[in-house]
Design brief:
Elements lengths: L1 H26 L19 H4 L3 H8 L8
């Protein structure tokens, strides 16, 4: 159980960093209007970790989703 609690704390920290990074990207006047954000970690979709990464998914849910491939 301790391992999951540690992972939950890590997810909370990652969520804050992702939110800050996306916010900076969106607000930056130097970023072109056609900017794209790519999440390349497959754990966000794997059944064992997807539930734990829901806070990160909620950050991305505020923006238009485009599925490639």
């Amino acid at each position: 159980m301790r391992h999951k609690r540690g992972f939950g704390e890590l997810v909370a920290q990652v969520t804050v960093l992702v939110r800050q990074g996306i916010g900076r990207l969106v607000r930056s006047p130097d970023t072109p209007a056609n900017r794209r954000i790519h999440w390349l970690d497959a754990k966000i979709h794997q059944p064992g970790t997807a539930g734990l990464l829901n806070p990160v998914k909620r950050v991305f849910a505020k923006y238009q989703q485009i599925t490639v491939g």
